Request: fold
Amino acid sequence: MGQALTITRTEHTAEALREFAAGTRDGAQVRRLLAIAMILAGRSRTEAAELSGMDRQTLRDWVHRYTPQGSPA
Reply:
């Protein structure tokens, strides 16, 4: 198994991501934001993926997109 990516963006808290998700109408975007918020809140990636209706690889891909380019992963 590969090494997990670390979320290095610090400008958004888990609470801020949940608030943003509450204000959007795009269901897929809501799932992605809530999954990342769960990770920032300390849940495991497996649990966050399952609760968001996606597999771990899909969540890993979204974390990779969320993390700024060039940041250490």
Notes: The chain has a mean pLDDT of 84.
